[in-house]
């Protein structure tokens, strides 16, 4: 099975920065997309950003220019660098990985989330 674990959430003042990390382990294939979603109370879960196995990135409109998703030297680990945080960024942030090959093709695996709170 695949396990996804996030970390790095916390409380930060508006305008500050936070760096989230996510590691997928288990039977995950190298050919995958990893990304971040977030969900605030009363809101639907929304996509934040994702990165392909070769480093191609895409961002939600609200994240452009403020958030950066990267893979480190470990292919199964991604980070979300969040700068210029706003109170409306407060949410539980979830890491997602989606295999692009193998028997679990396009199956979503989720972490349990990490809380981000941005105070004004």
Can you walk me through this structure?
This protein is an all-beta fold. The protein is 0% helix and 53% strand. It has no helices and 11 strands. The chain has strands at 2-7, 10-13, 18-26, 32-39, 46-51, 57-59, 67-71, 77-82, 91-99, 109-110, 114-119. The strands form 2 sheets. Strands 2, 4, 5, 6, 9, 10 and 11 form a 7-stranded mixed β-sheet that branches. Strands 1-3-8-7 form a 4-stranded antiparallel β-sheet, with no helix packed on it. It is globular and about 45 Å long. The termini are far apart. The relative contact order is 0.33. The model has no long low-confidence stretch (mean pLDDT 95).
In short:
This protein is mainly β.
Question: Mean of the pLDDT scores?
Answer: 95
Number of strands: 11
Poorly predicted regions: none
Largest sheet: 7 strands, mixed
How far apart are the first and last residues' alpha carbons, in Å? 40 Å
- SSE string, helices as H and strands as E: EEEEEEEEEEE
Helix count, DSSP H or I runs of 4 or more residues: 0
- Beta percentage is over 45%
Helix content: under 10%
Q: Strand pairing plus helix content: what structural class?
A: mainly beta
Radius of gyration: 14 Å
Shape: globular
């Amino acid at each position: 099975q695949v396990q996804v674990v996030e970390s790095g959430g916390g409380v930060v003042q508006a305008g500050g920065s936070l760096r989230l990390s996510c590691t997928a382990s288990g039977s995950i294939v190298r050919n995958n997309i990893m990304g971040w979603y977030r969900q605030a109370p009363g809101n639907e879960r929304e996509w934040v950003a994702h990165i392909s196995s070769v480093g191609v990135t895409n961002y939600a409109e609200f994240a452009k220019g403020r958030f950066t998703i990267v893979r480190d030297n470990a292919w199964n680990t991604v980070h979300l660098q969040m700068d210029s945080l706003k109170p409306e960024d407060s949410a539980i942030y979830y890491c997602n990985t989606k295999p692009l090959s193998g028997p679990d093709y396009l199956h979503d695996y989720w972490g349990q989330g990490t809380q981000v709170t941005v105070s004004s």
